[in-house]
Amino acid sequence: MTRIYATISGETNRHPQHPDKSERNMTIKKIVYATDLSRRADRAGRRALQLASDHQADLLALSVVEADLQEESLVRLMRGSPEEVARQLVEGTDKALAEHMEKLGVVEGGTVQSRAVLGHGHKTILSEAKAFGADLLVIGAHGHHHLRDIFLGTTAENLVRNTDRPILVVKNEPQGRYRKVLVPVDFSERSRHALELAVSSVADDGTVQVLHVFNTAPLDRIYRTGADDETVRRIHQQAMAETQQDLSAFLAQAEVDLDKVESTIRVGYPPLVIEEAANALNAELLVMGTHGRKHWQDVLLGGVARRVVNQVRCDVLLSRGRA
């Protein structure tokens, strides 16, 4: 039975583990770390190595060489045919990538391999990840063109749109396993999968905070129809009570260790509330399902996820999860 340690109006509830409930863990046996070899990508590489060691997983470091070999200036500068230029670019990048991984460290209990390939961004990353059988993709928040092209809005979004594999966007230097993890949920199956990922990612002594944002926009529309304050207040109280019931049922059905889980309901505009909650918690990792219930589909990934991923300071784990 759930014991309530605090009220639900923006505060935190604890959820002790049911003694008969089994825990479903995210299995990570193979990880792909995609890098453009920029300095900003180093922290993603170190996080990938740490995760591979924690899970005794095999790690593939991948760098996609993107070059328009039909561009005459490039071929002329490198003094060769398009095929020869491609070979030189791939060989050079492959060598640089191997040296890069040697500097970053080793995987304890797993293997590390590196590969440079000629291709086209997210399509090539996904193709290589599929061939490798990756359970997780790890990328950096920004690459060489971070001022001109927001990496999170292009590569990460394209990856999420085209794969069911979880994608970890690393922003910070790794400091061991994640200890403070925030999971925004909308009670969908994909949110449940995000919660499972979060619990599997947190340190043994860490905490996962589940956040549901109660969006007041529908109430605002009711108010504008001319409804009196008492009617709006009654509808709000009823909706909050139903939301608490939904949250309790959602957690009761989740096959995770609830000893690590706290929950809270907050009111407001989802992107802003999620960002504020992440900052207040000093979260090290935010885990988000990128498509949820119908009323969120227009904003998740396109609105909520894009804004949150770009604004929060912590690492972000994105997953389309199960439908």
Automatic annotation (TrEMBL):
SUPFAM superfamilies: Adenine nucleotide alpha hydrolases-like. Coiled coil: none annotated. Signal peptide: none annotated. It comes from the Bacteria. Residues 1-24 are annotated as: Disordered. InterPro entries: Rossmann-like_a/b/a_fold, Universal_stress_UspA, UspA. Residues 12-24 have a biased composition (Basic and acidic residues). Residues 28-171, 178-319 form the UspA domain. Belongs to the universal stress protein A family. This is UspA domain protein.
